[in-house]
Design goal:
6 helices, single chain, about 180 residues
Length: about 180
C-alpha cells in the first residue's frame, strides 16, 4: 500500500512539473469558473492558474489527509468488529478498553477526512480567486506604460491633463487619490 502511494505521488509530481514546462509566452486570460471546475481534481485548478507549487501541495495534502482518514477508518472497523463486539458478547472486562480505542480511531478518521475535504473545498475557492488575480496581472502587463511614453502621448494629442499613478505605472493596484499625480499643460 505504501509503495503504491509513493508511486502515485511521484507520478503526480512528475505530471504537474511536466504541465509546468509547457507554458507559452503569449498573454492569455483564464476562466475563473474553469479553474474552479478543474479543482474537482485537487491541485489541478492551481496548476491551471499557474500556481504549480501550490497545486502540488494541495494534491499531496488532500491525498495524505484523505488516505490517513481511510486508514484510520480501517483500523476503527478492525477494533470495532474484531475486538470490541466479541468482547461484548463474551462479557470480557476489556470491552471498555476496546470501545475507547475504536472510538479514538473513529474520531481520528473523521477529523482527517474533514480536514482533507476542507483543504479541497478551499482549493476550489482559491483557484477561482487566483484566476481573477492572474487575469488582473495579465491586464496590468498589457497596460504597462511608463512616464515618458505617457508624456509623449500627452504632447502629441494635446491633452490638457492626464491622471497617472505616482509610481509611473498604469498597472498600480493602489487607487487612492494620494497615489496619483495630475500632469497639466
Amino acid at each position: 500500500m505504501l509503495k503504491a502511494t509513493v508511486i502515485i505521488t511521484g507520478f503526480a509530481v512528475f505530471f504537474f512539473i511536466l504541465i509546468g514546462c509547457a507554458e507559452s509566452a503569449e498573454i492569455r486570460f483564464i476562466s475563473p469558473i474553469g479553474a474552479a471546475a478543474r479543482s474537482v481534481i485537487p491541485g489541478w485548478g492551481q496548476v491551471y492558474t499557474r500556481s504549480k507549487v501550490e497545486g502540488v501541495i494541495v494534491f499531496l495534502s488532500v491525498g495524505l489527509f484523505a488516505g490517513g482518514g481511510i486508514r484510520a477508518h480501517t483500523i476503527y472497523r478492525d477494533f470495532y468488529d474484531n475486538k470490541y463486539r466479541p468482547a461484548v458478547f463474551a462479557g470480557s472486562d476489556r470491552e471498555d478498553f476496546y470501545f475507547d480505542r475504536a472510538n479514538q480511531y473513529y474520531k481520528l478518521s473523521r477529523f482527517l477526512i474533514y480536514v482533507g475535504a476542507g483543504i479541497w473545498a478551499y482549493s476550489v475557492l482559491d483557484a477561482y480567486v487566483d484566476a481573477h488575480i492572474y487575469n488582473a496581472q495579465q491586464q496590468a502587463e498589457m497596460l504597462d506604460i511608463d512616464d515618458e511614453s505617457l508624456q509623449q502621448l500627452k504632447l502629441e494629442d494635446g491633452l490638457s491633463q492626464v491622471i497617472i499613478p505616482k509610481n509611473g505605472f498604469l498597472s498600480s493596484f493602489c487607487f487612492s487619490p494620494v497615489n496619483y499625480a495630475i500632469i497639466k499643460r
